[in-house]
Amino acid sequence: VQLVESGGGLVQAGGSLRLSCAASGRTFSSYDMSWVRQAPGKGPEWVSTIRRGTGSTDYADSVKGRFTISRDNAKNILYLQMNGLKPEDTAVYHCTIGTAATALTLTEYWGQGTQVTVSS
Question: Closest by alpha carbon to 17, among 25, 26, 8, 29?
Answer without folding.
Answer: 8
